[in-house]
Each structure stands twice: as structure tokens, then as C-alpha cells.
Specification:
Strands 4-3-5-6 form a 4-stranded mixed sheet. The longest helix has 16 residues. It has a domain of 92 residues: 3-Layer(aba) Sandwich (Glutaredoxin). With 144 residues, it is of the alpha+beta class. Helices cover 34% and strands 21% of the residues. A hairpin with a 7-residue loop joins strand 5 and strand 6. It contains 5 helices and 6 strands. It is globular, with a radius of gyration of 14 Å. Belongs to the glutaredoxin family. This is Glutaredoxin-like protein. InterPro entries: Glutaredoxin-like (IPR008554), Glutaredoxin-like_YDR286C (IPR052565), Thioredoxin-like_sf (IPR036249).
Length: 144
């Protein structure tokens, strides 16, 4: 893995889903992206705004299960290049004061992964606590 220059990235600060104050971050290689990957980001940004599949991981710092869930999601996206291009993946830090509503909803349940097709009302699937790579992929594939 390239450990050279790394850029923290945050995408789409103008489109605040679920909660207007929700901080959205895209996870690429544990919240960072190598300079080598910057070229592909341009294409990803174009697809970002047209994607219907939304993956939202509710998490917080100092949470072992959350760290494992982030690793699982990183592997899922890395191993499924088409998914990485077509899905919008965000991480919501429920400890952020701006995300108080999410903290009240999920403070005892994190990590929680929301899988949603924004074109189909009522399509929200939730995975709580322990994320399994195969289970996540199967649930995502159920939206195709």
C-alpha cells in the first residue's frame, strides 16, 4: 500500500441528507486517499451527484466495532470497483454536536450501516453492530 502523500477528503458539503448538519465524509483507505488515487476522484465526483445508492455508516471515535465496520466497508468498496464508483458512502460521527439527533437514535447501537436507494421510497435497510463483508455485499446487491 502506498504510504506516501495522503489527502483527507470530504465530499458534497452542500447536500446534507437526513440532518442538515450531518458531516459527511467519504471513506477511502480508512478516511484517506493516496495521491495516486486523486485522478480517479474526478470521475467519482461526477458520479457522486448522480448516484442513487447511499451507504451511510453511523460511527464514533474510540469504538472498536466502528473501526472494524470501517475496515469492512473499505474492503467491500475496494473489492467491488463498480460499487465504489456508483455508490455514495458517508460516515456520520454521532459524537459531533451537529449530529445530536443521530446520537439520540443510535448511541447504544453503533455502528449502524444504512443502505438506501434514493429512488425507491421505503428502501432503507439497516445493519447493526457487526458488519460482515458478505452480508453487506448481499444486501447491497438486493438493490440491483
Amino acid at each position: 500500500m502506498n504510504r506516501g502523500f495522503r489527502l483527507p477528503i470530504q465530499l458534497n458539503p452542500h447536500n446534507q441528507s437526513a440532518d442538515q448538519a450531518t458531516r459527511q465524509e467519504t471513506l477511502v483507505d480508512s478516511q484517506f486517499m493516496s495521491l495516486r488515487s486523486v485522478r480517479s476522484l474526478h470521475s467519482s465526483l461526477r458520479l457522486y451527484y448522480s448516484s442513487d445508492l447511499k451507504l451511510t455508516l453511523f460511527s464514533k471515535d474510540n469504538c472498536g466495532l466502528c473501526d472494524k465496520a470501517k475496515d469492512v466497508m473499505g474492503k467491500v468498496l475496494k473489492d467491488n470497483q463498480e460499487l465504489e464508483r456508483k455508490a455514495v458512502y458517508t460516515i456520520v460521527d454521532i459524537d459531533d454536536p451537529a449530529n445530536k439527533d443521530w446520537w439520540e437514535k443510535y448511541c447504544f447501537d453503533i455502528p449502524v450501516l444504512h443502505i438506501e436507494d434514493s429512488t425507491r421510497q421505503g428502501s432503507l435497510l439497516k445493519i447493526f453492530h457487526r458488519l460482515d463483508e458478505k452480508d453487506v455485499v448481499d444486501k447491497i446487491n438486493s438493490f440491483k
